[in-house]
Specification:
The chain has about 160 residues and is α+β, with helices and mostly antiparallel strands. The chain contains one helix and eight strands, in the order H-E-E-E-E-E-E-E-E. The protein is about 25% helix and about 50% strand. A hairpin with a 2-residue loop joins strand 4 and strand 5.
Length: about 160
């Protein structure tokens, strides 16, 4: 009887692991593959870059930035990286972010988390696809760690051609 109970416990544990691994494989490989296969929308993956100069906004007066966004697309889901170079009369710095988000009906929503976890500035953006898929226009909202408030600036990115 003890043998049968032990065999039942071991079989239950092995079955649980098989089901867990099968579920993970289904969700991480099969479902994205099927979504990508059925996806009929525009492809926006690849490199995007832009330049912004903001004047007249008190919080970011004289602000200039160079930006580079690299996106990987799987159907509506977007991931990638973002590099933001800040320049004004007081300071210059560069921040690198991991990007995640999605695209729906020509609108792109992205969330930016710093690659360096010691940095507490993060942001989000809402962009609209323009010019037949060659540019993204919208607003970037981010946490200004010095003023402890949310700053919103215009963002314009152009597709980098291969």
């Amino acid at each position: 009887m003890l043998n049968e109970g032990l065999v039942g416990i071991v079989a239950g544990i092995i079955t649980t692991w098989i089901l867990f691994i099968g579920k993970e494989f289904w969700e991480s490989r099969v479902v994205p593959y099927l979504q990508e296969l059925r996806y009929q929308g525009v492809k926006i993956d690849g490199a995007w870059s832009g330049y912004t100069k903001v004047e007249g906004q008190e919080a970011v007066e004289g602000f200039e930035s160079d930006t580079r966004l690299f996106l990987v697309q799987s159907a509506h889901k977007l991931t990638g990286s973002f590099t933001f170079t800040f320049k004004n009369s007081k300071k210059n710095f560069t921040l690198d972010f991991n990007v995640s988000g999605y695209m729906w009906e020509g609108y792109i929503t992205l969330n930016f988390l710093p690659k360096d976890r010691r940095i507490t500035s993060y942001g989000t953006t809402l962009l609209k696809l323009h010019d037949g898929g060659h540019s993204l226009l919208g607003q970037w909202c981010f946490r200004d760690v010095e003023a402890e408030k949310v700053i919103s600036i215009p963002m314009s990115l152009g597709r980098e051609m291969k």
